[in-house]
Specification:
- The complex is a heterodimer of chains A (223) and B (598).
- Chain A is of the alpha/beta class.
- Chain A has one domain: Nucleotidyltransferase, domain 5.
- Chain A contains 8 helices and 6 strands.
- In chain A, strand 5, helix 5 and strand 6 form a beta-alpha-beta unit.
- Chain B has 4 domains: 108 residues, Jelly Rolls (Sandwich), CATH 2.60.120.10; 117 residues, Roll (CBS-domain); 178 residues, Beta Polymerase, domain 2 (2-Layer Sandwich), CATH 3.30.460; 136 residues, Four Helix Bundle (Hemerythrin (Met), subunit A) (Up-down Bundle), CATH 1.20.120.
- In chain B, strand 4 and strand 5 form a beta hairpin.
- Helix content of chain B is 50%, strand content 15%.
- Chain B has 23 helices and 20 strands.
- Chain B starts with 16 loop residues before the first helix and ends in a 6-residue tail after the last helix.
- In chain B, the strands form 6 sheets. Chain B has a 4-stranded antiparallel β-sheet with strand order 1-8-3-6. In chain B, strands 2-7-4-5 form a 4-stranded antiparallel β-sheet, with no helix packed on it.
- Classes of the chains: A alpha/beta (223), B alpha+beta (598).
Chain lengths: 223, 598
């Protein structure tokens, strides 16, 4: 954390394009942005973004009507395994714009708001590849990891040896949220936002998520 | 399917893809804590809320009037009118998708089908549902496969065989068409072909059948849709198709098989009842009556019509059984009556037999005794369960002389107990089925006159409408979206109050009608009920009876108990509307008969 704070200071000082200094200003109070990327594969050093969706959250309201959604044309081939996950093929992204044309709009959309996600570090690492190329910095936005809040609400007082399940489907099931169209960036960002507003309320009212004594027989949706 | 908006459910299924996309793009998602107010009573709603997770209570002046779960939406009335009667409060953590009011109003104006949903009153809404139901059911039947139909066997005869052999095979396999093999080609010959060949062309029975076969076969594969079969029959003007899978002949599809698949065959049953000469033959027909219900419903026929057809068949059956069993000495000296739901013509699935006899003077007790035991026994064998309250011909209480009945009426109308009120209700619904119908007419006239003069009795009679708590409160037990163990009693909560409320008003007016729908029409004609209200009541009753019937067909354990969680949100909305109408009727009956006095 300290390291990130330091590099944030450095970045702010070295930001090459001053037009993007708003990234370092705090966003409107009580606002966050839920974000999700689909990629050509799982290696942030090599793979690239092929679709991105971001949804603003204001207080208890998910502003699904104010979203940023875009398909991106990557410079590398999409791995067959990845196509199986998100269903985006080469032909689907061929007519899309490259990330460098999309990124400015995305950055203006998110501003300085904290970014909410499920394994958010991966999404931000993917974005940072391009942000650093364009602006010479890393995204300075605070990060909110829903699986961490979930872990804290459910497992922080668990005895050693407890089976821990942080899968997306498991979180949705615990919160009785519907699972739709997973691995579509918009749906994933929306479901993540729902998880977030729900967990945020649990934290505020100090409600814990019960742990079943018996290990659940099986997930209702394979990850 | 989108997280925010399920466009497969009404009324959103009426949006074009573009409209749905536009609406979806305008929707936000709101989170509510337990006990948080979503719309205050009388407040202006921000838009239309569609529940994604959780449970929402609908409250009127603090009273719980409904409980909504995932996929339910609210509040359509408030949305249109700008402010609603009910308030909405989250019962547990709840997420709702929110369609902005301006956007929904725009769609209401631009898409009449979508708009209709928000403006129509309950009966129109129900009618639309019924139509949709009907078309979707016919549609699903059209998508049935040829192999699902009853097919005639594909029996093959060689073309050199004589006509007489063809005739014999047809008789033996009870089929009116044979396939004729003539070398490489195959044709078909029908009974009609055989007859014409001999009568019109003067052929002999020894002539080879190959000479009269038709070799232009119209064939269909067993996997083809039923609609395709219908199309082929119409196109080639054929009454039968040959069903062929590859090179194999599977069977012959006749137009009658196709028709009976769609229509059931109630007309055939009528003939069978009329022709029955023995109890056993009549029993076979009785079994067929019970089999009519399912195809009729599958066709999407409304309850009111199903009940009319079934009641008509049952009454023919009773009358025929009466003719078969009743000794001549008794025949003109008594009247066979059906009572209760059977009398009102509202029984579809057999729940019990409510029947009795009104006797004239001078009946031989021994003859009578034998007859009524045989009669009740035969009905039980036909599959009519004995009446739990023993309202049956073989119960001496329900087979008495007209004089005894009339004496009973005086006791019933003067006694302050539930049994008396129930006896009056049962008898007031009676219809004559066989024998001397004037006996019933005389008895009823007397009953109505006695009742009309007894305001106290009328009040006590109507009071039963309050026997059961309003059903809306029963939603209380619907705890979560999973809906565990919660059930709603349609009969006590909706059907009985309508039937009995209407019966109370009818008996006060001395109406002769027994059917609740007909009573409602008459009460509206007399100006006792507003026409709109009578229509709403009729539709609500038809709707409640229909869902109960469907549950009975699906062999639910207790078909009167319904789990709201198993219904679609459209059904739940209609159910709530129906119970609202029931509530209004209870109020009306309560005021009219001063029930506060009792």
């Amino acid at each position: 954390m300290a390291l990130r704070w330091l590099s944030r200071l450095m970045d702010k000082a070295t930001l090459s394009d001053r037009r993007y200094s708003f990234l370092f200003e705090p966003g409107p109070p009580d606002e966050t942005v839920s974000i999700d990327c689909e990629t050509t594969g799982l290696d942030p050093r090599r793979d690239e973004i092929i679709s991105v969706a971001a949804i603003k959250i204001r207080g208890d309201r998910i502003l699904a009507s104010e979203t940023f959604q875009s398909v991106v044309r990557p410079r590398v081939a999409i791995a067959a395994e990845a196509i199986k996950i998100h269903g985006l093929r080469e032909v689907d992204v061929a007519s899309a714009r490259p990330i460098k044309e999309i990124l400015p709009d995305l950055l203006h959309f998110i501003g300085g708001r904290p970014l909410v996600g499920y394994y958010i570090d991966f999404d931000i690492a993917m974005l940072n590849n391009h942000v650093s190329e364009m602006l010479g910095i890393q995204l300075p936005n605070p990060r909110i990891e829903v699986s961490s809040i979930y872990y804290e609400r459910k497992y922080s007082d668990a005895p050693p040896g407890t089976q821990i399940n942080l899968t997306f489907a498991n979180i949705l099931r615990d919160l009785k949220l519907p699972l739709f169209n997973q691995h579509d960036a918009f749906s994933d960002a929306l479901m993540t936002a729902m998880i977030y507003v729900n967990l945020k309320d649990y934290v505020a009212r100090d409600i814990r998520i019960p742990r079943p004594r018996i290990k659940p027989a099986q997930d209702y949706h394979g990850m | 399917m989108s997280v925010i908006l399920d466009t497969a459910t009404a009324p959103f299924d009426r949006l074009t893809p573009d409209e749905a996309e536009m609406l979806r793009g305008a929707m936000d998602v709101a989170y509510f804590r337990p006990n948080e107010t979503i719309i205050a009573e009388g407040g202006a709603p921000e838009g239309l809320y569609v529940i994604i997770k959780g449970a929402v209570e609908e409250r009127e002046q603090g009273d719980l009037v409904g409980l909504l779960g995932p996929k339910d939406f609210f509040d359509s009335r408030a949305l249109v009118q700008g402010a609603g009667v009910s308030g909405f409060v989250a019962r547990e953590e709840t997420l709702c998708a929110l369609a902005p009011r301006a956007e929904v109003l725009r769609l209401i104006n631009s898409n009449p089908r979508f708009g209709a949903f928000f403006y129509t009153d309950i009966s129109r809404k129900l009618e639309e549902l019924a139509q949709k139901d009907e078309s979707s059911q016919i549609e699903s039947m059209m998508r049935a496969r040829v192999r699902d139909l009853y097919l005639m066997p594909a029996a093959i005869i060689d073309s050199v065989q004589p006509i007489v052999s063809a005739g014999r095979i047809m008789r033996d396999i009870d089929c009116n068409a044979l396939l004729v093999r003539d070398g490489d080609r195959t044709g078909v010959v029908t009974g009609m072909n055989l007859a014409k060949a001999m009568v019109l062309k003067g052929m002999t029975i020894d002539e080879p059948v190959g000479n009269i076969a038709q070799y232009e076969l119209v064939t269909i594969e067993p996997d083809e849709f039923v609609s395709q079969a219908l199309l082929l029959m119409t196109k080639y003007n054929k009454r039968r198709l040959v069903v062929k899978e590859g090179d194999n002949f599977v069977g012959i599809l006749e137009d009658i098989n196709l028709l009976s698949f769609f229509a059931g065959n109630s007309q055939l049953v009528v003939g069978r009842i009329d022709r029955a000469a023995t109890i056993a033959e009549l029993g076979a027909a009785a079994k067929q009556i019970a089999e009519q219900v399912r195809p009729l419903r599958r066709q999407g026929v409304k309850f009111e019509v199903v009940a009319e057809i079934i009641s008509d068949l049952n009454r023919r059956l009773f009358a025929k059984l009466f003719d078969l069993l009743c000794p001549d000495k008794l025949h003109d000296k008594c009247c066979l009556i059906v009572m209760g739901s059977e009398g009102r013509g509202e029984q579809t699935i057999r729940t019990d037999q409510d029947n009795g006899l009104i006797l004239g003077e001078g009946v031989d007790p021994a003859v009578l005794d034998r007859f009524r035991n045989e009669f009740s026994g035969a009905l039980a064998e036909f599959g009519f369960p004995p009446c739990p309250g023993q309202v049956m011909v073989n119960n001496p209480l329900w087979s008495r002389t007209i004089g005894e009945y009339i004496a009973d009426f005086s006791v019933w109308t003067a006694t302050a107990d539930d049994q008396s009120a129930m006896n009056v209700a049962i008898f007031y619904d009676a219809e004559a089925v066989a024998g001397d119908a004037s006996l019933l007419a005389r008895a009823k006239k007397d009953l109505v006159e006695k009742v009309a003069n007894e305001r106290v009795f009328l009040g006590r009679f109507a009071k039963s409408i309050e026997a059961f708590e309003p059903p809306i409160g029963l939603f209380n037990t619907l705890k979560t979206s999973e809906g565990e163990g919660d059930a709603l009693d349609l009969k006590k909560g909706g059907i009985f109050p309508i039937v009995h409320g209407v019966r109370s008003l009818a008996i006060e007016q001395g109406l002769e009608e027994t059917n609740t729908f007909k009573r409602l029409a008459k009460l509206a004609e007399l100006g006792l009920l507003k026409e709109d209200f009578a229509r709403d009541l009729a539709r609500a009753l038809d709707y409640l009876m229909t869902i109960r019937l469907d549950a009975q067909i699906n062999a639910a354990k207790s078909a009167s108990l319904l789990k709201p969680a198993t219904l679609t949100s459209m059904d739940r909305e209609l159910l709530r509307d129906s119970f609202q109408v029931v509530k209004q009727l209870r109020e009306l009956v309560r005021r009219r008969f001063n029930l506060n006095m009792f």
